[in-house]
Write a structure and sequence with these properties.
With 97 residues, this protein is of the alpha+beta class. It is built from 5 helices and 3 strands; from the N terminus they run αβααββαα. It has one domain: Multidrug-efflux Transporter Regulator, Chain: A, Domain 2, CATH 1.10.1660. A 3-stranded antiparallel sheet has the order 1-3-2. α2 packs across α3 and α3 packs across α5.
């Protein structure tokens, strides 16, 4: 007849992931996920859990990012993210002068 509760839970698709889960999902390091979020390549939202505020990334954004850059290897994606971070650091240092 109907499905059990445990079966329904397993079928549920996660709409958001934390950085650790996103890193495992994408096959890159957690630090790289944070770099992508900080450089605004990966969108994220802030979620309040008790007294902590955590970042959550939409799974759709992860899928879009991976399919958009499918032609690039992980190393090329990381180089691209590193270059963007360097540009951001240069802009910040110029503002401080």
């Amino acid at each position: 007849m109907g499905k059990k509760k445990s079966e329904k839970k397993r079928e549920r698709v996660r709409a958001y992931m934390g950085p650790t889960d996103a890193a495992a999902y994408m096959g890159i390091s957690r630090r790289s996920v944070y770099r992508l979020m900080d450089s605004h390549i990966l969108p994220y939202c802030l979620v309040r859990l008790c007294k902590a505020t955590v970042r959550r990334i939409p799974v759709q954004a992860l899928d879009d990012y991976m399919t958009r850059d499918m032609s690039m290897s992980n190393e090329e994606m990381l180089r691209k993210a590193d270059l963007l971070l360097l540009e951001m650091d240069l802009r910040r240092s110029r503002r401080g002068r």
